[in-house]
């Protein structure tokens, strides 16, 4: 009598969440890679003045999709703190929609717009790729190194570029909106410090774990 094949185990909520997050992160990595490729190609060929025309709309909607990360954090799908997630996502959405989209004449052709997109896209390609690999249980060492070291350079480039664009937009409007722009810049200082130190703390935790893993492997061998 032929043995019955075991039935596949049903998907659990955690399995569904894992598959969803894997798909989300993979799509986002591809979207930001497209932005990175556009900027890298456009700047040397046609100059920074054409970057907004070639990548601006795509960037706005790609960054808007990242609003889902607030939902992910709020519902516990990821371990990222809700406050830092809101700060990161909201500040970028403010820049692409409230600053550059509203005042393109003052901001879109600036080299700081291009430097901002380069910093954002390079960071996000690595970040989302790291998340995909981590969800699959296999992250190469070089990817971990990039994830937790690139921000030392890219974060200051990105945040300073954002601040310059906000300042440029504030110069293009009259009062009281000019003071709103200055208020946003005032928030950037403590906000950037919180996000930067959070990444440093995450790096220390991850690197300490990697060092412990290497020591354990050395002992077992």
Give me the secondary-structure topology.
Elements: H1 13-46, H2 51-65, H3 68-74, H4 82-100, H5 104-107, H6 111-135, H7 141-147, H8 151-171, H9 177-220
Helix pairs in contact: 1-2, 1-6, 2-4, 3-4, 4-8, 6-7, 6-8, 8-9
Low-confidence parts: none
Structural class: mainly alpha
Order of helices and strands: HHHHHHHHH
| Number of β-strand runs | 0
What's the total helix number?
Answer: 9
How would you sum up the major sheet? none
Shape: globular
What number is the mean pLDDT?
89
What can you tell me about this protein's structure?
Helix 6 crosses helix 7 and helix 8 packs antiparallel against helix 9. The chain is an all-alpha fold and 221 residues long. The longest helix has 44 residues. 23% of the residues are buried. Helices cover 80% and strands 0% of the residues.
Compact summary:
With 221 residues, the protein is an all-alpha fold. 80% of the residues lie in helices and 0% in strands.
Summary keywords:
single chain
């Amino acid at each position: 009598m032929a043995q019955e094949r075991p039935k596949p185990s049903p998907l659990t909520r955690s399995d569904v969440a894992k598959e969803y997050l894997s798909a989300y992160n993979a799509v986002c990595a591809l979207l930001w890679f497209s932005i990175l490729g556009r900027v890298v190609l456009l700047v040397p060929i046609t100059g920074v003045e054409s970057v907004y025309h070639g990548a601006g709309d795509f960037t706005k909607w790609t960054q808007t999709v990242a609003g889902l990360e607030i939902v992910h954090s709020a519902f516990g799908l990821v371990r990222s703190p809700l406050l830092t997630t809101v700060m990161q996502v909201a500040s970028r959405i403010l820049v692409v929609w409230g600053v550059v989209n509203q005042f393109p004449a003052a901001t879109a052709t600036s080299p700081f717009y291009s430097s901002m997109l380069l910093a954002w896209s390079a960071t996000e390609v690595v970040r989302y790729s790291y998340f995909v690999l981590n969800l699959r249980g296999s992250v190469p060492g070089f990817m971990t190194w990039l994830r937790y070291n690139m921000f030392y350079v890219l974060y200051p480039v990105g945040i300073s570029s954002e601040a310059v664009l906000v300042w440029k937009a504030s110069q293009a409007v009259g009062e009281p909106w000019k003071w709103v722009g200055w208020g946003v810049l005032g928030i950037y200082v403590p906000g950037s410090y919180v996000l930067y130190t959070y990444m440093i703390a995450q790096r220390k935790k991850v690197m300490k774990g990697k060092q412990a893993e290497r020591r354990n492997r050395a002992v077992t061998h």
